[in-house]
Amino acid sequence: MHFFLEPLWWLLFAFSTTVLSVAALMKPIRITPLVLILLAWGVSVVVTGMTWGIPGALADALLSLVCGLLLLLLSILFSGVKLMAKKRYGGL
Length: 92
Prior knowledge:
The protein has two helices and no strands. It is 85% helix and 0% strand. It has one domain.
């Protein structure tokens, strides 16, 4: 688990998380940008795997997926709350 001490691993992890965050925050989900985003994420995970092996790639993939899923759930929750307030009070 020495890859946690490497700055390059953290940069690749930040890139992976940022890419998945963009995918989670897309309002109209279109296929082409989503495929490109997932391709960029996959390349980042593969580069991490080539540099630090399977444990580094798994850590990068799992942690970035968890961050992306949490952000997606928060986005859905807040847009649902906003829509609910709009319906009840006629817009905010």
